[in-house]
Amino acid sequence: MKASQRAQAIEPSLIRALRDKASTTSLDLGLGQTDLPVSEHVLALLQERLSPPAYASYGPNLGLMSMREAVAKRYGITADEVLITCGVQQGLALAFLGLVDDGDEVLIPDPGFPAYANLVRAAGAIPVSYPLSEGTQDLDIALIRPLVSDKTCYILINSPSNPTGAVHEGKNMLAVLGELHDLGVNWISDEIYEDYVYDEEHVSPASDAALVSCGVRLSGLSKSHHMMGWRLGWLTGPASIIDALKPLHQHMVTSASTLIQDAGVASLAVHDEVVSQSLAVFRERRDVVYERLMKIEGVACEKPRGAFYLWVDVHRLFRAGEDSLTFALDLLEQEDVVVIPGQGFGSAGESFIRIAYTIDKSRLEEAMDRFHRFCQRRLAERA
Questions:
Q1: Could you give the CA distance from residue 298 to residue 125 in angstroms, rounded to a whole number?
Q2: In order of start, what are the domains of the chain with their CATH numbers?
Q3: Cα angle vertex 106, ends 105, 112, to 5°?
Q4: How far apart are CA 110 and CA 130, in angstroms?
Q5: What is the rounded distance in angstroms from the CA atom of residue 328 to the CA atom of residue 354?
Q6: In angstroms, rounded to a whole number, what is the distance separating the alpha carbons of residues 222 and 229?
Q7: Residue 74 reports pLDDT greater than 70
Q8: CA nearest neighbour of 71 among 226, 186, 242
Q9: Nearest-angstrom CA–CA distance, 115 and 342
Q10: Residue 269: count of CB within 10 angstroms of its CB
């Protein structure tokens, strides 16, 4: 007996591989997991509703109407345009399995979250990596257009970005997607970091009347409300697409947890307050780490405008024949600091590491002390 070709097409994630090598004492700048607490308002509701008879039955396949309406209200759409998922990961799987066919091509960002290519392959389609503009990591139609073939059906975009923290400039993004739509290419937008935009407004393709009918948006509460393990997200799109995806979603998961959906409704009721507090914390952390990095010889990075990652170019500190993975492993061994090697996010990431500022400020300072010391040793070796 052997695993299917679809299962074998999935490549192990370097994000988990690095963390699996860490110890309980490691300073973990690896996993994109917030450390802030879930709202007391939400926890109180769960305590009130933890009654077994209330949650003994299945929920509606598309999600509780209360949850769908809460998401719809947030975006100014109708509940018919909302499907509740078990997190964005399941939403991505649903989108690829439900929207692309064998042999189709899907454009995915490089660098980009590794699930994209893996899930495209699992759906029997072909991931085609598109480069982002140097420095800004923005969409560039001149770089994307040559990759479009008669088999290209979708482009996946992720803004704010994991791993770079970049935010696509809204007007340019809409123009690029409009031009691609004229070529027959629709869009899938992963917006799980939409609430982590520090100095501007988040722009979604779904906000453009000319584009709203040719794509789906994915988001959820994992990052914004610190509910990573609760696995609650959503997919929004034209009502006809939501209806068409319903049977596949039904046979994948039946429905998202009804108890967690109630928590989701409560979370969206205090959304602005929670996000405002979280942004203040993460903006301060971003500034602390960025300013520390700017003082380290041999490294370079752009100040991120969103998410909670810094995309750090460290190739000038590589030893002969070294890559981002061996650099990250050496840092873990010598200084007990976890970072994620850029190669885990695509070939364009080979010169980089990803730093997640998802631990408290004092431990971030300690991690930067250790990283600075590590980099100084590397520079001394080359002197």
A1: 40
A2: 5-38+272-375 (3.90.1150.10), 40-270 (3.40.640.10)
A3: 140
A4: 6
A5: 10
A6: 7
A7: yes
A8: 242
A9: 14
A10: 15
> 342-377: per-residue pLDDT in tens?
999 999 999 999 999 999 999 999 999 999 999 999
Q: 256 by DSSP, 3-state: which?
A: coil
Residues 363, 27 contacting (CB under 8 angstroms) = yes
Residue found under tokens 């692309």: 100
CA distances from 277 to 12, 36, 46, 271, 359 (A): 35, 10, 22, 10, 16
* Range in 48-57, 166-175, 340-349 with the lowest mean pLDDT: 48-57
Beta carbons within 8 Å of 232's beta carbon, 6+ residues apart: 84, 85, 86, 87, 220, 221, 222, 256, 257, 260, 261, 263, 264
Angle at 251 between CA 250 and CA 253, to 5 degrees: 70
- CA 69 – CA 85 distance, rounded (Å): 14
